[in-house]
Amino acid sequence: MMEKRRLKAAVLGCGSVGSQVVRLLTEQADDLAARVGAPVELVGVAVRRLDAPREVDLPPDLLTTDAAGLVARADVDVVIEVIGGIEPARSLILSALANGASVVTANKALLAEDGPTLFEAAAKAERDLYYEAAVAGAIPIVRPLRESLAGDKVTRVLGIVNGTTNFILDKMDSSGAGFSEALEEAQELGYAEADPTADVEGFDAAAKTAILASLAFHSRVTDTDVYREGISEVTAADVQSAREMDSVVKLLSICELRDGKVAARVHPAMIPRSHPLASVRGAYNAVFVESEAAGQLMFYGPGAGGAPTASAVLGDLVTVARNRLAGTRGMGESAYADRAVLPMGETRTRYHVALDVDDRSGVLAAVAMTFADHDVSIQIVRQEGRGADAELVVVSHAASDAALSATVQQLRDMDIVRAVTSVMRVEGGDE
User: Fold this and answer.
1) Three-class DSSP category at 33
2) Radius of gyration of the chain (CA)
3) Cis peptide before 88 (omega within 30 of 0)
4) What pLDDT sits at residue 382?
5) Cβ distance 172 to 249 under 8 Å?
6) Angle 363-373/401-412 helices, nearest 10 degrees?
7) Is 208 a catalytic site residue?
8) Pairing state of beta strands 295-302 and 284-291?
9) For a tag on the chain, would you pick the N or C end, based on fewer CB atoms within 10 A?
């Protein structure tokens, strides 16, 4: 049977991930054939420049700059897209599906921006669209949400899905470094790009959050639906305040059901050191899933890098190739619930607020009254220092983000408050 049917694969892109995909396809050809049930033959690799240096040696006849021509080949069974970005990736994927190929992609940005278009094209063509590598690199999280937990009701997904920001915040926590200093070290070690905006401002994490929310809650969620804050405003003082509460600061991806709606957000937050996500160090990722029947599940591992991401790509390739041999398809998009997205202002959360205040009688009462005016209950109050150095720290119980934001704004306008020195959300503890 293996001699009668050889599956043909084309790869779009030969950068950090693409080169590792090609290497694994070549080095593990026999094992892949045994797992799939037929050989998988690499028939072409689309690149921008034929003479660019690469991490893998390839026969010249496999390289092409004609990506459109490669995906249009009628004999290609699977197209692997690892070029990233919106265009030409979207057009190439749509062309591949229209020409009868199934698609494996690692393109989080495209899926978060225009996933429905791709899923509809895959359904029309009766082909697979798999994307495990789009979220958290080698960590298997897409398949568990898409398939393993399909019989359960997921209620919350809480994750660290960006290695760059986790490295920076971990360094700030462990060494007392400021943001700029920690970012510079991340760049020197290759964990951060020369232009780190996509990572440190939360765009990368927001795209992944949109994908996770769509999967978990069977509804279409795009990156524009995700509330986003980055970590560039996190200070060493914020990290120290978290430490004093026996907490750490993490950039969190949060997807949850609230009153029948989907809440999806990315922002830095304090979480207790007792929470499983608090122990995720360096550039590692982790996703914490809560469901009604299975309870709490955690998925942990390297969230980026050529080889780890290629591992996820090859896992999808095996599944898609098996489906092609069997003449079947895997799961497509599940958006039957069609839940609305909850505005950030209606999302319930907790705030940690640090105030530089006058050290005189009545200050605490006035601050407490301000919280009460917005129906926000106070959980913790702590005053440090005296005189000109007095600082008041308040941690709220859960309330709507709009009420908490209005509280902070009123505090800024009070004569007794010289400055609101820190505002950060608190997650993972009792509401």
Assistant:
1) helix
2) 24
3) yes
4) 87
5) yes
6) 140
7) yes
8) antiparallel
9) N
